[in-house]
Amino acid sequence: MKLTPAQEERAQRLHRQALVWDSHCDTLMDIAAGRRTLGQGNAGGHLDLPRLQQGGVKVQIFAIYIESPPYLRRTLEFIGAFYRELEQNRGKLTLAGSMAEIEAATLRGEVAAILSIEGGEALEGGPAILPCLYRLGVRALGLTWNHRNQLADGIAEARTGGGLTTLGLETVAEMNRLGMVIDVSHLSPAGFWDVLEHSRHPVIASHSNARGLYDHPRNLDDDQIRALAARGGVMGINFSPAFLGPAASLETVLDQIDYIARLAGCDCIGLGSDYDGIAATPRGLEDVSLLPNITRGLVARGYSDQDILKILGGNFARVFARVIG
Fold first, then answer.
1. In this structure, are strands 93-95 and 59-65 parallel, antiparallel, or unpaired?
2. Predicted TM-score of the model (pTM)
3. How many CB atoms lie within 10 A of CB 193?
4. DSSP string, 14-64
5. Residue 210: beta bridge partners?
6. Which of 75, 125, 203, 303 could disulfide-pair with 182, CB 3.0 to 4.6 Å?
7. What is the DSSP string of 108-161?
8. What is the distance between the terminal CA atoms of the chain, rounded to a whole angstrom?
9. How far is CA 271 from CA 5, 79, 88, 212, 236, in A?
């Protein structure tokens, strides 16, 4: 992609102006395992504080994904590891529980971090501990990973046609009450539709793509995308070649944005890289420092300033402002 000098200047200005927001990374898996720290630049993986700053990222959602029991204990260990990172990176990183805290962090030049749990196994039986997790800073939760749990069926169980259980419906209601964002990535289709029917607030698909452009079970079909958009929700474009196609590149990511924009408009599109949770990356987006290439691509493809700012983070800011305050 070759931009004119005027286009390059515009792309740089917009990227600086934008509240650049990545709705999903799995970096805490490495942090909790002691393999690296956020303060280490280029010490492996796709994401750390120096590269977040280089990429202009102002808000990063850190997922807590627990592969095996004891789920709640491991969740607390991940949160503890994150709190250690906060202590070691004062003045560079802050835990944000509201939009006011996000805006304050941005003014200070710090990266605002939001904690999200990927998989309702962490609740170990229902919503009773959600208020405790909320007090620890968790502001989003995906009800399942790929498999079935006590709340719902994941996408790997879609054959059954199962959606949310009674505990799952109770969890949705409690998240609405607390002000926590519901994440429908990884849910079975029936679970997706159950959430949209029962949630009082907009929801997100933090790291999912369009199935109409690349047919993978983890991607959302056209009806799901239209419905998510109609309810004010947002989907974060996932950078995994598994959900983009084997020859994935920056252009493939931009193709996903084009497809969803034509289908449901720009108000439902964001970025959900899945960095540090994917085995490979698209060419041109090898790590988080290269996110300005997205802005260059949107400029090259003729998006308006307003729509570029929405895609880079404004849409997620709108949903989180509505839900978490």
1. unpaired
2. 0.97
3. 17
4. HHHHS--EEEEE-THHHHHTTS--TTSTTSSSS--HHHHHHTT--EEEEEE
5. 220
6. 203
7. HTPEEEEEEEESGGGGSSSGGGHHHHHHTTEEEEES-SSS--SSB-BGGGGGGT
8. 39
9. 26, 23, 27, 18, 4
CA atoms of 215 and 154, how far apart (whole Å):
17
User: Which tokens in the block code for residue 61?
Assistant: 């959602």
How far apart, in whole angstroms, are the C-alpha atoms of residue 122 and residue 246?
Answer: 33
| Residuewise pLDDT in 10s, the chain (325 residues) | 899 999 999 999 999 999 999 999 999 999 999 999 999 887 789 999 999 999 999 999 999 999 999 999 999 999 999 999 999 999 999 999 999 999 999 999 999 999 999 999 999 988 999 999 999 999 999 999 999 999 999 999 988 898 999 999 999 999 999 999 999 999 999 999 999 999 999 999 999 999 999 999 999 999 999 999 999 999 999 999 999 999 999 999 999 999 999 999 999 999 999 999 999 999 999 999 999 999 999 999 999 999 999 999 999 999 999 999 9
Rounded Cα gap, residues 171 and 165, in angstroms: 10
User: What b/e string do you get for 76-110 counting C-beta neighbours within 10 Å, with b at 16 or more?
Assistant: bbbbebbeebeeebeebbbbbbebeebbebbeeeb
CA angle 167, 200, 136 (to 5 degrees): 65
Distance in angstroms (rounded) separating the CA atoms of residues 138 and 136: 6
Amino acid identity at 209: N
Rounded Cα–Cα distance for residues 266 and 49 (Å): 29
